[in-house]
Amino acid sequence: MSDLQAFQAETRAWLKENCPASLLGAGGGGLVGTWGGRKWQPENEDQRVWLERAAEKGFTAPTWPTDVGGGGLSKAEAKILAQEMRALGVPPPLIGFGLTMIGPTLLQYGSEEQKQEHLPKIVRGEIRWCQGYSEPGAGSDLAGLQMRAEDKGDHYIVNGTKVWTSYADEADWIFALVRTDPKAKKQEGITFLLIDMETPGVSVSPILLISGSSPFCETHFQDVKALKSNVIFKEHAGWTVAKALLGHERSMVAEAFGGGSRRSLADRARAYLPGATADGPLPDGGLRRDIASFEMEARAFGLTMQRSRDAAKAGQQPGAESSIFKIVGTELNQRRQELLLHIAGPQALGWEGEGFADGELATTRDWLRSRGNTIEGGTSEVQRNIIAKRVLGLPD
Amino acid sequence: MSDLQAFQAETRAWLKENCPASLLGAGGGGLVGTWGGRKWQPENEDQRVWLERAAEKGFTAPTWPTDVGGGGLSKAEAKILAQEMRALGVPPPLIGFGLTMIGPTLLQYGSEEQKQEHLPKIVRGEIRWCQGYSEPGAGSDLAGLQMRAEDKGDHYIVNGTKVWTSYADEADWIFALVRTDPKAKKQEGITFLLIDMETPGVSVSPILLISGSSPFCETHFQDVKALKSNVIFKEHAGWTVAKALLGHERSMVAEAFGGGSRRSLADRARAYLPGATADGPLPDGGLRRDIASFEMEARAFGLTMQRSRDAAKAGQQPGAESSIFKIVGTELNQRRQELLLHIAGPQALGWEGEGFADGELATTRDWLRSRGNTIEGGTSEVQRNIIAKRVLGLPD
Amino acid sequence: MELILTEDQELIAKTAVDFVGERSPIARMRALRDDGDPAGFSRELWKEMADLGWVGIPFAEVHGGADLGLAELTVVIEALGRGLAPEPFLSTVLLAGQLLQRSGDDAACARWLPGVCAGDTILALAYQGVTSRYDAFSPSVVATASGDGFRLAGQAIQVLDGHVADALIVSARTSGEQGEASGLSLFVVPKDASGLEIVRQSRVDGRNAALVQLDDVAVSAADALAGVDGGGPLLQQTIDRATIGLCAEMLGGMQQAFELTLEHMKTREQFDTVIGTFQALKHRAADLFIEIELAKSVVMAAARAADEAGADPGELARHVSVAKAHCSEAYVHITNEAVQMFGGVGMTDEYDIGFYMKRARAAELTFGDAAFHRDRWAALGGY
Amino acid sequence: MELILTEDQELIAKTAVDFVGERSPIARMRALRDDGDPAGFSRELWKEMADLGWVGIPFAEVHGGADLGLAELTVVIEALGRGLAPEPFLSTVLLAGQLLQRSGDDAACARWLPGVCAGDTILALAYQGVTSRYDAFSPSVVATASGDGFRLAGQAIQVLDGHVADALIVSARTSGEQGEASGLSLFVVPKDASGLEIVRQSRVDGRNAALVQLDDVAVSAADALAGVDGGGPLLQQTIDRATIGLCAEMLGGMQQAFELTLEHMKTREQFDTVIGTFQALKHRAADLFIEIELAKSVVMAAARAADEAGADPGELARHVSVAKAHCSEAYVHITNEAVQMFGGVGMTDEYDIGFYMKRARAAELTFGDAAFHRDRWAALGGY
After folding, report:
1. Is residue D359 part of a domain?
2. C4 at the B interface (CB within 8 A)?
């Protein structure tokens, strides 16, 4: 038996023994994700127990080093762990921006003290993080940010506003870009700073979207004191840290729109088109071709994601993949939402209440929400600029 | 009887009496257009007679003043003349860039001597004109032209090359933009100059296109002497004249793609689609919708051309119409050509010879030729720049 | 037909645009929504519009109308579309009102139209069911003969302004098969008829509509406009004309959305310059401008074609389909691009641009989307 | 399956790209056309390609082949597509050769394949008639039983490399109805068979093809690959595999066309700056780049899917349709944009870019365009 086979057997046994039975099965028994944090209320005792045990074992952050509470697993082992969890229907013990965004950033750019202070709390789900990048009026021009951090010796005084901070109202700490040198060139006066959301002067207000309520917030900072020991990497060098993190976010956003097996568009069309039979060609030849066209491009996109992953596994350096994925993944999702509208016809016009099925109301809101996909996480326009400049070498 | 009614009766009688019977009927009895000029050989005696009689009457240039040989007609009268010619199937006695381009330009910007020298010869079809604007390497950036006209007192010595000079090999005179002041800002050192193509040093070579032979030529000028009396408007002020002429050309190009009644796309599709019936829905639902979509946009375009004409008739100043028409007209024609390819399928792949019908070979070549529509006469990109700047007021 | 506004029409247009700018900017529609207004529109403003003569434009003078045509009415509606004004033009004037007027039923006209022209009476048309999609000949209401009349049973969805209507015109199948023009009857049903239940619906674009339930509603054969079994052609023609009105509204909305976007492009700074300097955005803006110019032409042509006496119904249908297909795609495209160019703020409820994106979609999916009208065009062309 | 080239495949790719750059740039194809070369390709170069082992890639070692798969073959063809090399890979290797190989007919394979692998024998497949469009089951050749064999009569169009083929494989209907898979037979017919007339055709993209006339050509039942009436499924599968090869060629061509365009954008000056600085063009170039990246993935996936033993035919057909639909639209879009960005000179025969635009269209309309493959995808998905 190879080492990996042994690891597999061991892991399976451990999962069976430690994951509470009530959580097993597809989608973790309908469990809403475990985000953790100071304000978190577990849905039930089993959810709390599962987080505790997994964190103890290092399985909330399987590939992180053991000295910060991670599992210390190799990539191959982590893949097996994921496989086994899928096979048994074990839900993720913990999710959130701590694990996916600030954690990897701290591992790459954090000081030893910073790692020791923050990573174990992320692993145990004690602290929930949010991201403070965008500002009102900055938009795609991230480096144009205005939030000011004034130097006061061992600390800064921070003033300004961040927007689009997802779940800021639930988070304990924020990782933010602040301007520490207003005289330097745009990208050179920025610092990557961690701030405790309980510091006096921090306040949060949720943003209402055209699709309804949302996880997005505006976060205001009024004379907020932030210690310099919470600067990541170096003062004025925050842009370097931010770029590394952004590339990561872009891929994440694209993955979210990749595919997944939902009820097929053709089946939906059958439910709405008069004269549709259970298995014959759809009676609307134009719509039929539109559906096929979408599905085929989605497959081409999925294959491209796979090709990129296979190349990465083989050790090849990534190129412009994240920008491609962001552009295509989000536009495909928008196409899909538009197709769903065309399929449902007048029944796609509901907002709430009588006369519309729940699925129809969701179709409407999902469509509206999807219009933001090509804006958030770096607009499609910015991604095209990136490809033109970095990959195609076209001049400014 | 009103004046116009009298004019109508008179004109009809004159046309009946003077247009040779062999030329009457749809399309002028299959007559190829009468371009005139020194090198012109009439297809038959009647064609020559008809040109002579019409020119005598001023009907080759109906709205031009009588003192230059024009008909001196009002717009309303000219419209009636055109109606009557259509009604009787009378072919145009004369066509060409003299009548449509340099003639109107001379009327607007020419001196009295210049009008008297050139316009009567145009009216009588004695001199054929071509246009010398584009140069190799200039493309859309017309004002970047390099053809040099060196000042020698009462004349210039011209050196350089013009491209895309349609029918230069058949023309007697050329109206050209030349650079008279190389130190001035791009658009300020240009002069609008008339040159006799028989002057020593002028030579012409035809351009072979991807669609096959074409009317386009390259025209070379080596130490060509051109008198200053042939400068139109003022020295160094050629850009003003050129712009006026360009706006005119743009509308002409768009009109050419406007519509016209050809064999319907649906009928063509019936000839190629297996299973198509004489009057049922086309068996290919996607193609059917593509054809409908094209036809409907073409109608929307036609209505927009009509709206613009109606507004002009009512005395409203034109806005960006010519740019809109150029963009939409040419793109519609390209769409139509692509539809024809998709309809004919593999039979659209012929270049010449066995196995393809003449109409199929024409489909292939017409498609190739259509790709130039969005380039010639000002690219679609330049037209969009014009709309963005002049109409929408977007900043540079 | 001439595709140009007459002096009178220019004057109406100017009055209407000014009125909308002053009295009915988009903020009014937002306030009605936020306040949960039970009517969802302003009866005072409606009355004012009637006093201005707008409501009565297409009706006979004998009923208090101006006996004008769609050429005039579309000019007013285009202006109202700029502010997404929720007053009941579509339901009362273009659908139910026009049905009455064109039915030639003098008694019914005399009963209802004076109130309409005066701005006092609201009417609505109940013709589509949850499975009708865009087919006007497949209602979900069935009429069963009973004595010298009928009993109506079934449901109608998204009955525009049904919740405030004084009477509904209900399309019901009296004979024949679904999808056929013949066998449809159009009954006038007052709002207090026994067995009629009307519940307001909430639509994504805020347009007022209602779900109408008919449980054994008694009507007489004399209440059938255009006669029993004879309502199909009248219904289709009326919907076609109403579609022209909807297109005019869309034309107004797309122009307003585009102007908001242009304004944004000229003021919003990114990367140290206003975003209107970016050539990629400029070219996209030029394309939107062209779509609007074409939209103006097709709406104007359709309205004029409808006003021509003895217009060929097939040719009118073609005009309507061209207008609806083009306006549907243009409005959707323009508002999608608008939100994209606004960026994140365009996605917030706080900004107005989202209202136009919602209305664009709702209008697209009313009276047939572009695909539906392309199919209809092809069928009219015999292919 | 892993979507990445193995080291061996990388090596083949590098050799092939270098070979094309040195021996078969687009100028060679232009010269062949301008000189009116009667073969339309180079027998010497074909022999060299055979010596390099490329021609024999998919054939059994016993016939002199390498017993490799489409994964390797597509890498070579992609490189050749950059130079639009006219050598007969599609006809001889992917169509007729693969038909023989996959028919399991040992005698026929032994007779023809060694010559193919050595670069000495050219084969062609005659399967489509003027009314077939993209349906492989509607040939224009009919076989009439005669003694223990058949007489073939009819026409086949655009038989790739038919004018130089040593033998043709002719698809003929021996029974059943047009459009049905069963009842099709594939007969091997040597070029000197009595009653066979072959005339070279001139295609817009310069690809070599011939019109084949059969007037009472005698064949024996033993000449039918996969048996009498049994050729349909084999023909369809072979065309599917050949489609993957064509997609690889398209992928090479679109990359070359895009690189020519990028080069042009970086050097061509307009309005005092290189046109590559214009953002509108940059964004369009980024879109073309994305289409190419997706094309790489679908071609690689289809080739690997075809090489998998016991691949599900439906799933393979899906891969093929995705690849062909995507590559068709991408190649056409890229070359259309290329000519537009080159401007007037792009329209002249003197510039090379037009060759790619012509080939893009020709490839699009071979083995089914995007619309055809979307219909097939929908049918495979049961809708």
Report:
1. yes
2. yes
Q: Average of pLDDT values for A215-220?
A: 94
Which chain B residues are within 8 Å of A275, Cβ to Cβ? none
Q: What's the 3-state SS for chain A?
A: CCHHHHHHHHHHHHHHHHCCHHHCCCHHHHCCCCCCCCCCCCCCHHHHHHHHHHHHHCCCCCCCCHHHCCCCCCHHHHHHHHHHHHHHCCCCCCCCHHHHHHHHHHHHHCCHHHHHHHHHHHHCCCCCEEEECCCCCCCCCHHHCCCEEEECCCEEEEEEEECCCCCHHHCCEEEEEEECCCCCCHHHCEEEEEEECCCCCEEEEEEEECCEEEEEEEEEEEEEEEEHHHECCCCCEHHHHHHHHHHHHHHHHHHHCCCCCCCCHHHHHHHHCCCCCCCCCCCCHHHHHHHHHHHHHHHHHHHHHHHHHHHHHCCCCCCCHHHHHHHHHHHHHHHHHHHHHHHHHHHHHEEECCCCCHHHHHHHHHHHHHCCCCCCCCCHHHHHHHHHHHHCCCCC
Asked if residue C159 and residue C117 are part of one domain, the reply reads no
Q: d(Cα C331, Cα C343) in Å, to the nearest integer?
A: 18
Whether A59 shows a pLDDT value over 90: the answer reads yes
Across the range B248-253, mean pLDDT stands at 62
CB–CB contact D282 A264 (8 Å): no
pLDDT reading at A167 higher than 60: yes
Contacts of C280 in chain A (CB under 8 A): 381, 384
d(CA D240, CA D315): 12
What's the gap between Cα A242 and its chain centre?
15
Number of residues assigned to chain C = 383
Residue at token pair 């073939």: D152
B332/chain C closest Cα distance in angstroms:
13
What average pLDDT does chain B have?
Answer: 90
DSSP code of residue B317: P
Question: B257-391 architecture in CATH?
Answer: Up-down Bundle (1.20)
- Which residue, D229, D245, D268, sits at the end of a domain? D229
**A303, A320, A381 ranked by CB distance to D297: nearest:** A303
| B275 contacts on C by Cβ (under 8 Å) | none
Q: Which of A186, A209, A379 sits opposite C343 (nearest CB)?
A: A379
Q: What confidence score (pLDDT) does residue A75 get? A: 86
Q: Which of A320-329, B243-252, D32-41 has the lowest mean pLDDT?
A: B243-252
Give residue D81's domain range. 7-121
Interchain proximity A384–C280, CB inside 8 Å: yes
- CB contact residues (below 8 A), chain A span 41-80, against chain D: none
Which residues on C lie below 8 Å from A286 (Cβ)? 371, 374-375
A331 Cβ under 8 Å from any chain D Cβ: no
Q: What are the backbone angles phi and psi of residue C203, rounded to the nearest 5°? A: -100, 155
The whole-model pTM stands at 0.88
B289 to chain A: which residues are within 8 Å by CB? 285-286
List the single residue in A303, A327, A328 with the smallest CB-CB distance to D298.
Answer: A303
Residue from B112, B249, B295, B352 carrying the catalytic annotation: B249
Provide the number of CB pairs (under 8 Å) joining chain B to chain D: 128
Q: Do B284 and A285 touch (CB under 8 A)?
A: yes
User: Of C45, C40, C43, C37, which Cα lies nearest the Cα of C86?
Assistant: C40
| B366 token code pair | 């017409």
CATH 1.10.540 is held by the domain B3-95: yes
Cα–Cα–Cα angle for B375, B376, B381, rounded to 5 degrees:
40
Summarised one tens digit per residue, pLDDT across range D281-315 is 999 999 999 999 999 999 999 999 999 988 788 99
- CATH T-level fold of A129-240: Butyryl-CoA Dehydrogenase, subunit A; domain 2 (2.40.110)
Mutation target among D6, D281, D297 for the A interface, most CBs of A within 10 A: D297
